[in-house]
Design goal:
single chain; alpha+beta; Nucleoside Triphosphate Pyrophosphohydrolase; three-stranded antiparallel sheet; 3 helices; about 25% helix
Length: about 150
């Protein structure tokens, strides 16, 4: 998050439009991978903000690897999200309006590892038995994914 951190030095905690990507990763049982985030103590998707010169797909793959140790072999664009519902105020006060490209990944490799700076735990969950404390910016994405998967 170097680009955003550099901007924060100039604008402080004021709202920024933050462009990023996340990954809805499913295992062979169709369970969804979530990480327990350290910043808000909520479960969320692997993802993060775009760096300068990076494509959204590159950001999704990079964030997945950095946060989980898994390598996405193939990503499929699920949807792009923005608007009031994607406003978020971090516990430390930074405000953002997220623009998020969500990708689905069923083809991956590697071994799960916890990135201790960002995550407390990583686990797969049945889509119909998710933890109660889902990270607010990820909740509408996960809800839509579950809804569309059940059609």
């Amino acid at each position: 998050m170097n680009y955003i951190m550099e901007l924060r030095k100039v604008v402080g905690t004021r709202p920024l439009i933050m462009v990023g990507a996340c990954v809805i990763l499913q295992n062979e049982k169709r369970e969804i991978l979530l990480q327990l985030r350290k910043d808000n103590n909520c479960w969320g998707l692997a993802g993060g903000s775009l760096e300068l010169g990076e494509t959204l797909e590159q950001a999704a793959k990079r964030e997945l690897y950095e946060e989980t140790g898994l390598i996405a072999n193939k990503l499929e664009l699920f949807n792009v999200y923005s608007g009031e519902e994607f406003y978020y105020k971090y516990p430390h006060g930074d405000e953002v309006y997220n623009v998020v490209s969500a990708y689905i990944c069923n083809d991956y490799e590697g071994k799960i590892r916890i990135e201790e700076g960002e995550s407390q735990a990583i686990s797969f969950f049945d889509p119909h038995n998710l933890p109660q404390n889902i990270s607010p910016p990820d909740l509408p994405i996960i809800r839509e994914f579950i809804y569309r998967s059940s059609l």
